Amino acid sequence: MIASDHGGYDLKTEVIRHLEERGLEYKDFGCYDKNSCDYPVFGKAAANAVASGECDRGIVVCTTGIGISITANKIKGIRCALCTDPHFAEMTRLHNDANMLALAGGDYDRELSIRIVDTFLDTGFSNEEKHIRRIKEIEN
User: Fold this and answer.
1) What confidence category does residue 107 fall into, taking pLDDT thresholds of 50, 70 and 90?
2) Crossing angle of the two packed helices 86-96 and 110-122, in degrees rounded to 10
3) Which of 54, 75, 119, 140 could form a disulfide with 86 if both were Cys (CB 3.0 to 4.6 A apart)?
4) Any catalytic annotation for residue 62?
5) 48 and 3 Cβ atoms separated by less than 8 Å
6) Closest by Cα among 110, 87, 112, 116 to 100
């Protein structure tokens, strides 16, 4: 599952190309071109798909990654993290069981962004008691 606004459109298309190269299925929740649009529309659609179980995880992109991650996190059950390097992506999966990744598409480095995506997709949750407890506290 993936979504972006116009500011994240170019990076979203790069991530889609990479997902296809990996043979991974995805659903694109928009936007579908670089015309100015509102990131909350697409961030909310993607987050609802993850929260409902339609998709296991999601990736959302706007110019900074900030607005679309705030939007996603408004949906109950979503733990969306804006990650700027692979280490953060690894830690948010291990410790927070993040189910959505936010990326900044405004001035991105393709190779770094793809490494972040791969780390997010390939890292599992630690299942440590302390992390489970903390996630429950977040949910409450």
Assistant:
1) confident
2) 20
3) 119
4) yes
5) no
6) 116
Q: pTM value? A: 0.96
Q: Which amino acid is at 102?
A: A
Kindly report, residue by residue over 44-85, the tens digit of the pLDDT.
999 999 999 999 999 999 999 999 999 999 999 999 999 999
Q: Is 95 a catalytic residue?
A: yes
Query: By residue range, what is the domain housing residue 106?
Result: 2-139
Residue 53 burial by Cβ neighbours in a 10 Å radius (0-12, 13-18, 19+): exposed
The CA distance from 137 to 140, in Å, is 5
Residue of 62, 83, 87, 131 marked catalytic: 62
Count of structural domains, the chain? 1
Question: How far apart (Å, rounded) are the C-alpha atoms in residues 116 and 31?
Answer: 21
Question: Any idea what the CATH number is for the domain that residue 82 is in?
Answer: 3.40.1400.10
